[in-house]
Amino acid sequence: MTTKRSAAGLAGLARSAPWLFSFVGALVIFAVTLAANNWSGAGQIITAALSFGAFYAIVGIGQMFVITTGPGNIDLSVPATIALAGAIAMTTMGGSDAMILPGLAAAIAAGFLIGSFNYLLIWLLRIPPIIATLSSSFIVQSLAIVYGRGLRIAPPPFLAEIATGRVLGVPILAIVTILLAVVMAVVLHRSVYGRSVTAIGQNINAADLAGVRVGTMRFATYALSACFAAFCGVMLAAFSGGASLNMGEEYLLASIAVVVIGGTSVAGGFSNVSGIWGAALFLYLLITMLNTLGVGAGLRQIFTGVIIVAVITLAGGRKKGRG
Amino acid sequence: MVRTKLICLAGALALSAAMPAFAQDADTSDKNVALSNNYAGNSWRQAMIKSWQEATAKAVEDGVVASADANTTAENSATEQAAQLQNMILQGYDAIVLNAASPTALNGAVKEACDAGITVVSFDATVTEECAWRIAVDFKKMGVDQIDYLAERYPDGGPLLEIRGLPGTSVDEQIHAGILEGIEKHPQFEIAREVQGDWTQTVAQKSVASVLPSLPDVVGVVTQGGDGYGAARAFEAAGREVPTIIMGNRSDELQWWKEQKDENGYETFSQSIAPGVSTLGFWVAQQILAGADVPKDLQVPTLRIDQDGLDQGLEMTPEGGVTNKEYTREEAQELISSAK
């Protein structure tokens, strides 16, 4: 009886606060890590989690808007965009503080072009998004190789300071990304664009009949995702002392994982921004916990898989409630 | 008159006596060589292809071979590379120099090439098929050498941090096995923690940062290359003293080392395989085509940079790349005779 009720309560919670589970998961993992570490190093762990989590959050927010537009919508060009945008930004800036804004603009513009190209393939050639964004990522990655040739130019000092610096112990990049998340939450829940995206994800035909400009909105969404990936590429290059060709690789699965763990429905039409931050912290703390416990390479992958499945299962109460 | 004739005869005799020694310099100017490569998505492979192109362009110009094309598959996939090999068989190349996507999955295609009379030389990532030559890297030794070096620096030993490569790859397993072997030899060392670095600075930086709060003071960080700079940045960001990090010949690693050396006399060593090893593959293939007797298993020399050689090492390292060196025909001949 009690289990039944608590199960129903859990499902209800998943519906009203889907973002909660990623934060609870992050907290649990944080507690385990601290216990294993004799309750020391908390500040250091949190600081690191905020700065590395920020990168997951940036790409996650863009990916979330894409996934929200309904089944089949996904952006696989994220890693290639990160590589190209990082290289463009570092080359344009050339290590000079005065060139930060032009460099950032050039990288974001490249992101916008990649996103537009993605949607062009989807819309004009009617290719499924998964294939369209995958094939464009090959092209973009090749461009990054030709353009960058592994060139490593140090970021301008001021940009490096933003990427790695702290204010009162809190990483500056994390503050910027939290502000970005707040703005995007307002955009998602309050703006015409955000509501259109959700409507398209729930039922694309109904949205069309209701007067939503489906094509424009989907175009904007793919462009947005690529711009966020580009921004992530710039900050990642600034953070790690220069752009490298393979720095985006881990963000393909991570960008999707933070969206799903954050409580956004993979089927689209139901999403939230705050869960992405919870999931970003969760993913990083998971690495910290496994490293603190000294788990070997093979077991680590198994643990990562099992824990992610567990959180998604817990947070997935919503899907049952939907039918 | 008679005398000149005699001299001519003597000359001809001397020449014919010398012929066997020059056998490996037999004419290969009508031979076509191809490079089959499975991946081009990082700076090491980019440099590898570039070295191939530069060295072989000169060899073609000098009339050593007729052509030496470089081919790379789009995706790092064994099936695609097998198809590429089959195309090369049809195109009628005389030799294929191969960096393989898999040690075993290409064996069928390699055997077909051998049966068609094509010389197959695999390097870096080699194939197990017996008809092919192998220029392999002794990854295990790269692990042992790191502990040997640390044992010299820190005779009392101490805890170490190990950064692993891509999990599940044989390179990662072999370097790791070498490190364990080194620790068996010098039991005063122990691995305090191991983290996953994927041979990528950004991944290593994140992994090391995540382990630092719980990491005791370590004397050294043993690595696999491409992860040393990320580790150094993680230690610096946490405000901890940077231990002796073994580097992997990447330009960012060497530049950081140089800065530290000038500032506080930081000491370490750096090692990796030069991407120009592709040119060693080319010359070995050329030697085989020229009729030289070449053992099937050869060992790639490691390019090692020590404290004194850092400046020279930096000169040999292109901005953003890996320390490189193009091998010559003479070096290939030396490698072959030392393996006999």
- What is the C-alpha radius of gyration of chain B, as a whole number of Å? 23 Å
User: Over all CA atoms, what is the radius of gyration of chain A?
Assistant: 20 Å
Give the neighbour order of strands across the main sheet of chain B. 2-1-3-4-5-11
**Nearest-integer average pLDDT of chain A:** 88
Distance between the termini of chain B: 47 Å
Quick one: overall form of chain B? elongated
Q: Class of chain A in CATH?
A: Mainly Alpha
Number of domains of chain A: 1
Overall, the morphology of chain A is globular
Written overview of the protein:
The complex is a heterodimer of chains A (323) and B (340). Chain A has helices at residues 2-16, 20-36, 42-68, 78-93, 100-124, 129-148, 157-164, 172-190, 192-202, 204-209, 214-239, 251-261, 274-293, 297-315, 317-322; strands at residues 166-167, 170-171. With 323 residues, chain A is mainly alpha-helical. Chain A has a two-stranded antiparallel sheet. In chain A, β1 (166-167) and β2 form a beta hairpin. The longest helix of chain A is centred in the N-terminal third of the chain and has 27 residues, at 42-68. Chain B folds into 2 domains: 23-137 and 274-303 and 323-339, 3-Layer(aba) Sandwich (Rossmann fold); 139-272, Rossmann fold (3-Layer(aba) Sandwich). In chain B, α5 (139-153) runs parallel beside α6 and α10 packs across α12 (329-339). Chain B contains 12 helices and 12 strands. By secondary structure, chain B is an alpha/beta fold. Chain B has a 6-stranded parallel beta sheet with strand order 2-1-3-4-5-11, sandwiched between helices. In chain B, strands 7-6-8-9 form a 4-stranded parallel beta sheet. A two-stranded antiparallel ribbon of chain B has the order 10-12. The longest helix of chain B is centred in the first third of the chain and has 19 residues, at 43-61. At the A-B interface, α3, α6, α13 and α14 of A face α2, β7, α7 and α8 of B.
